[in-house]
Write a structure and sequence with these properties.
heterodimer, A: mainly alpha, two-stranded antiparallel sheet, 3 helices, B: alpha/beta, Amidase signature (AS) enzymes, 13% strand
Chain lengths: 95, 492
């Protein structure tokens, strides 16, 4: 599959990465090369093969549904680029 | 430079126990070596105050007689491991200034056993790279130089390139690495040291910055197999905080080492004989098989028919998982935030991620986003997970005929900066390491010889799930037979 600049623009938006217009075409070339290369998997017969979901067969463990941590507001906010009144602060969302 | 830094980790432990020297002296010698080798750029952050305090605590414990197995051993910690109170960046600008409020399970276990942390080691950004050229904190330079007189600066391999360079240059006794598709083994091979990636689930991933969660696995890098075994014993163990952590007993790997391969069957996967394979590496591989035979093993030919599909499978699965894992870097809770003038929340996300992530990371996030997007998910991601199951089955079938596999670690020796610029060509560095990563198997690289240019070459041993002991024993047999004593010349 070869992707064009418009597809790259769409992927970049989905990935929330601003890509300047001038970079769209070169990036399309790079991504197309990688996608073209991985497409050789199409030649592998995977009929009836279950997709691998765990490297070592294991059952996810359960634990009691209880609070096991907490009261560490200062630690949670310690690395916030902006925090106010015990909350993370972000640019205004609603006009 | 002090001779103390030349000792192996096990010899350091013996010397500390016998009080031949103190942990304070050992740490001071390493801090001095670090200061004299800053041109290698192996460390992003040095932590001399922490190291000195930890060394004093180790000396006190040694005097009291209740010291842990790694008391006073100076280690470097890859910057992918969260370290409480010490900046952790994963080699990325987007985490500049991030100071974890908690300690990763693996680094915490090493410290609990008495280890001394010298600092945080440089690496490819988010562990995405094979040459350390993608770090936002500058490239790590290998302490090695080719013997061809060119004196070009060489890559240390990646992504654990800082770990590799620091251990090879005697700046630390050992280091933590992480391996997603070869990030412990390929750099170990490039700088002439040992490194083991244990079975997926042996080492807790808790507190390790995530790249591709179904592949990421921590492991030790050091200058001998015994040193790796000592570190591995401390690093492994069940952790309820990691949902894929294996609840199995951890043997004392160092105590169990014999180097005896009597009765072992060593498999040679025929698909690893690549067209146009470097003749020196092919010869070294043959030599390794002869060494294994001398140590008592029988050699058997085996087939891993889906080998050629491992890299393309990896380059769907790893970016897919990365695109999901790296969604958390949005400028809200930690790390970089870039808000364009008058911009809203969505503008902030896009600008933060465009500024904070480097080119290779952006490329992989976009590949991952694409292969997971509506309409392409089955054709790419599900297909890759099916091929991955076939690759894992190849190994299962091969291990019906043999106990271990022996292969080269990497298709070449270390290359110079800028020699490989095409992303696809760079990915081929991991051709021998990615298949075992996809299957979650334990695998290690041991230095075995030198290229024509006098640069280290490693051999890789791959084992059955949870057979780290067998892998280490074969590693020790190769190490003894190879007698690898070459060392980097550029120590200043």
């Amino acid at each position: 599959m070869s992707v064009g600049p418009e597809t790259v623009r769409k992927i970049a938006r989905l990935a929330r990465i601003d890509v300047p217009d001038a970079a769209l075409a070169p990036l399309a070339g790079e991504l197309s090369a990688i996608l073209g290369w991985v497409e050789q998997l199409a030649e592998v017969d995977t009929e009836g093969v279950a997709p691998m979901t765990a490297v070592i067969p294991t059952r996810l463990r359960w634990r009691d549904d209880v609070v096991s941590d907490g009261d560490i507001q200062a630690k949670v906010l310690a690395n916030a680029p902006a925090a106010m009144s015990g909350f993370f602060a972000v640019p205004k969302v609603i006009e | 430079m002090s001779d103390l830094t030349d000792l192996g980790l096990a010899a350091m432990a013996r010397g500390l126990a016998a009080r031949d020297f103190s942990a304070a002296e050992l740490t001071a010698a390493h801090l001095e070596a670090m200061a004299a080798n800053r041109h290698l750029n192996a460390f992003i952050v040095e932590t001399p105050e922490i190291a000195t305090a930890q060394a004093a605590a180790a000396d006190a414990a040694l005097a009291r007689g209740d010291a842990g197995r790694l008391a006073g051993i100076p280690l470097g910690i890859k910057d992918l491991f969260c370290t409480e109170g010490v900046q952790t960046t994963a080699g990325s600008k987007i985490l500049a200034g991030f100071v974890p409020q908690y300690e990763s399970t693996v680094s915490g276990k090493l410290l609990a056993d008495g280890a001394v942390m010298l600092g945080k080691l440089n690496m490819d950004e988010f562990a995405m790279g094979s040459s350390n050229e993608t770090s936002a904190y500058g490239r790590v330079i290998s302490p090695w130089r080719a013997a061809d007189g060119s004196n070009r600066e060489l890559v240390p391999g990646g992504s654990s390139g800082g770990s590799a360079a620091a251990v090879a240059a005697r700046l630390c006794a050992g280091a933590t690495g992480t391996d997603t598709g070869g990030s412990i083994r390929q750099p170990a091979s490039f700088v002439g040291i040992s490194g083991i990636k244990p079975t997926y689930g042996r080492c807790s991933r808790w507190g390790v910055v995530a790249f591709a969660s179904s592949l990421d696995q921590a492991g030790p890098m050091a200058r001998s197999v015994e040193d790796c075994a000592l570190l591995l014993t401390s690093m492994c163990g069940f952790d309820p905080k990691d949902s894929t952590s294996l609840d199995v007993a951890v043997p004392d790997f160092a105590a169990g080492l014999t180097g005896d391969l009597s009765g072992k069957r060593i498999g040679v996967p025929r698909e690893y004989r690549l067209d146009g394979m470097d003749a020196t590496i092919a010869a070294l591989w043959e030599q390794g098989l002869a060494w294994a035979r001398d140590a008592g093993a029988t050699i058997v030919d085996v087939s891993l028919p889906h080998t050629k599909y491992a890299l393309p499978t990896y380059y769907i699965i790893a970016p897919a998982e990365a695109s999901s894992n790296l969604a958390r870097y949005d400028g809200v809770r930690y790390g970089l935030r870039v808000t364009p003038e008058g911009g809203n929340l969505a503008d902030m996300y896009g600008a933060t991620r465009a500024t904070g992530f480097g080119a290779e990371v952006q490329r992989r996030i976009m590949i991952g986003t694409y292969v997971l997007s509506a309409g392409f998910y089955d054709a790419y991601f599900t297909k890759a997970q099916k091929v991955r199951a076939l690759i894992a089955r190849d190994f299962e079938l091969a291990f019906e005929q043999c106990d271990l596999l022996l292969t080269p670690t990497a298709p070449s020796a270390a290359f110079a900066f800028g020699d490989i610029v095409d992303p696809l060509a760079m990915y081929l560095n991991d051709v021998f390491t990615v298949p075992s990563s996809l299957a979650g198997l334990p695998a290690m690289s041991v230095p075995a010889g030198l290229s024509n240019a006098g640069l280290p070459l490693g051999l890789q041993i791959i084992g059955r799930p949870l057979d780290e002991m067998g892998v280490l024993d074969a590693g020790l047999a190769i190490e003894r037979a190879a007698g690898f004593t070459a060392r980097p010349e550029s120590r200043r």
